[in-house]
Automatic annotation (TrEMBL):
Keyword check for Transmembrane: yes
Segments forming a coiled coil: none
Entry protein name: DUF373 family protein
Species this chain originates from: Halorubrum distributum JCM 9100
Residue intervals passing through the bilayer: 158-176, 182-201, 222-240, 260-282, 302-323, 338-359
InterPro entries: DUF373 (IPR007254)
Length: 369
């Protein structure tokens, strides 16, 4: 048996005529259509009901076992309306009780009503679907529904409306700026830059990265992790080291009395910078080790990190000093002193590795979680 199902998702039929739903049978659906047309001639659901009766009559004339019914939802959220339609479809099927398999031809007036198709398909096969619109307003309701859905989505709304709003504000803000003797070109440049940065931000998908970073910072603050403090201190030490490196380059240039070669300038910068970088590395690694210990994930091998950083700093400090002349604040090293520094850096790394490997094999440490 074929069921011609007229869908009115927002219940215009019930709200405007007071007719109880579902409505079953060609005569009853026709009366409901006339009542709705009388109450609101402009309602598109009138066309749906008459179209349903028309399809019913055509199929019945061909000898098809067919029935027509009108089901409605509620004037509210789509999920609630879809559930109401599903309940009415169940009532229609219960009243038919033909013993035959029932399939449906669904009649709607636009894309919004078609959101209920999965609900109907879960109860019976759908052999066809017909959308009824007024010829003079072809696809108008579908366009309206699509725009409504797009603007209802917070992400899409922000992507479209924020740049549009900034663009529309450019002219009035420039006018206001001119009234206060502020250069309108400056305002235009700032707003254009803001739109450009926002477009790049959205286009590159950086919002997830920023959200993740903000969430990490919140977690660090709320859990009291020591690394937050040590990382800030390390960053400050790196900045100080950069300034010290630049100052060392100036000192060596003054002592030499001539422009420096690229290699000498690099060695001077590293010589002034690396000691601060080493302290920053030791500070940050100690903070990380502390957090691992407090979290119960401490391993003895983690203590290698500050020793490795110190060994690398010693080697770089000695190598850079070997290429520099005597100058205030510069530790110029000879070949034998360079050899001793390299040996010391190697010993620091090797001995720390061996010591903590033995400690890890002999002493208990927290198991990773």
């Amino acid at each position: 048996m074929l069921l011609v199902l007229c869908v009115d998702l927002d219940d215009d039929l019930g709200r405007k005529t007071g007719i109880p739903t579902p409505v079953i049978g060609a005569d009853d659906v026709t009366e409901a259509a006339v009542a709705l047309a009388t109450a609101d001639p402009e309602d598109s659901d009138v066309n749906v009901l008459f179209q349903g009766v028309n399809v019913h009559d055509e199929l019945a004339a061909e000898g098809e076992a067919v029935e027509v019914a009108a089901v409605t939802g509620v004037d509210g959220p789509d999920v609630k309306a879809n559930r109401a339609v599903g309940q009415e479809v169940d009532r229609v099927l219960a009243e038919l009780s033909t013993g035959e398999e029932v399939s449906a031809v669904v009649i709607t007036d636009g894309a919004q009503d078609e959101s209920v198709l999965p609900v109907i398909r879960s109860r019976m096969p759908i052999d066809g679907m017909r959308r009824v619109v007024v010829r003079q307003a072809q696809d108008l309701e579908s366009l309206y529904y699509t725009i409504k859905q797009v603007l209802a989505d917070p992400e899409t709304r922000g992507t479209i409306l924020i740049p549009l709003g900034v663009v529309l504000l450019i002219y009035p803000l420039v006018v206001v700026a001119n009234l206060f003797d502020v250069a309108g070109a400056a305002v235009l440049g700032i707003l254009s830059g803001a739109v450009g940065l926002y477009s790049l931000f959205r286009g590159l998908g950086l919002e997830d990265t920023v959200d993740g970073a903000a969430e990490s910072v919140r977690n660090v603050l709320y859990t009291g992790r020591v690394t937050l403090v040590t990382y800030v201190v390390a960053l400050a030490l790196v900045v100080v080291g950069g300034v010290q490196g630049v100052d060392t380059v100036d000192v060596v240039r003054t002592a030499q009395g001539s422009p420096l070669a690229a290699g000498t300038a690099l060695a001077a910068f590293v010589h002034g910078f690396v000691q601060w970088l080493g302290v920053a590395g030791v500070t940050s690694s100690l903070g990380q080790i502390t957090d691992e210990y407090l979290a119960g994930r401490f391993r003895w091998r983690y203590l290698n990190a500050p020793f490795y950083v110190a060994a690398i700093a010693v080697v770089l400090f000695a190598v850079s000093g070997f290429f520099l002349p005597d100058a205030p604040g510069v530790t110029a090293l000879g070949l034998s002193e360079l050899a001793l520094a390299l040996a010391a850096g190697t010993l620091i790394g090797v001995l720390s590795t061996l010591a903590f490997a033995v400690a890890e094999s002999q002493l208990p440490s927290a198991e990773p979680v």
